[in-house]
Design brief:
Layout: H1 3-14, H2 18-32, H3 42-55, H4 62-71, H5 83-95, H6 103-112, H7 122-132, H8 139-152, H9 158-174, H10 182-205
Helix pairs in contact: 1-2, 3-4, 3-7, 4-6, 4-7, 5-6, 6-7, 9-10
Amino acid sequence: MNLNKIYSELLSVIGFSENEIQQNWLDLEKAYSKKSRHYHNLKHLEEMIASFEIYSDKLQNPNEILFSIFYHDFVYSASKKDNELKSAEYALLVLGEKSDLNKQLVFDAICATQNHTHNTNDDINWLIDFDLKILAKDWEEYKTYFEQIRKEYRIYPDFLYKPGRAKALKHFLEYDFIFQTEEFRSLYEEKARRNIEKEISYLESKK
């Protein structure tokens, strides 16, 4: 997948010049390529955009959602609680005044990737599901994912990280549904729950 091409075509449609597109892409690529990023990187964007391309015809505002995918983890620090808010603010800064995109939708969509709970806007529910699809991968790939997350949180010792991670995972299991769209529920809900339960057991057995 050529992320640069997809990004450039989107920004061109939005109304950015070639120079602006090039500079914005370099900024984006730099942010997602930091050494501290083991999961929240360009590969994560590729995975989400692969889902976006399959389901884009279901979206009312595909350009807004695609733009939101590119920027939803632009700011990412394991020690901070406001990554999504900062990413949303930065996305609006990039858009400036030149675009007809629904900026409120972009802002709300990026912020919604913090808690991944059901939204009144269907487009945002699709974005949430694209972000969480990793939870329903085959176990080996899922295991790679949570090992990558652990590396991103390596500043925390096990006695802090493990109960914190387990608590976050248990929140997902407390929801009626992990996924927000009917399509993703029917395809992935059961597998995601099995993976999460297995990871929790893994965390609690390694104390």
